[in-house]
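Handout, page 2. Input:
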Amino acid sequence: MIRDAGAEPATLALIDGRIRVGLADEEPELLGRSNKVQKVSRRDLPAVLASGRLGATTVDGTMICAALADIEVFVTGGICGVHRGAQETFDISADLQELARTSVAVVCAGAKSILDIGLTLEYLETHGAPVLSCEQVNFAAFYMRDSGFRADLRLDDTRRSKHASFEPIGTWV
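Output:
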């Protein structure tokens, strides 16, 4: 499907001190079989690259690597967000800051449904990260098409063209 849409699918990982976009056939197997693969977010990138360790990137880590490789869009399962009880724990995923900071579009199945979806969307709004839903007004929650929370914009035509339109959701003053 990705190739049919005119894009090239590529797995991203950190191998031998380098960011690798597009892995050789044996490299995903290497990552899957190794018990020494480190989870890599923004804070971990320098250390994993300098040490030459194997690294699998989180959404925020992938966004940074994609931006460095001039990749404008990537696809992932779901983003992390504000955890339930974050008012006491401050457990907020670095994905959210990166979504506001880095100019890479992330296509996903929404935020993981175990999170506080309302606070996740509030955090994204506060930090200026737009949230678009495709073919519906509500934001998805990973396993669920409809989280019960509205997205900022609805996009029904995903093709790049002068005819693609964004429909604001709700009342704007």
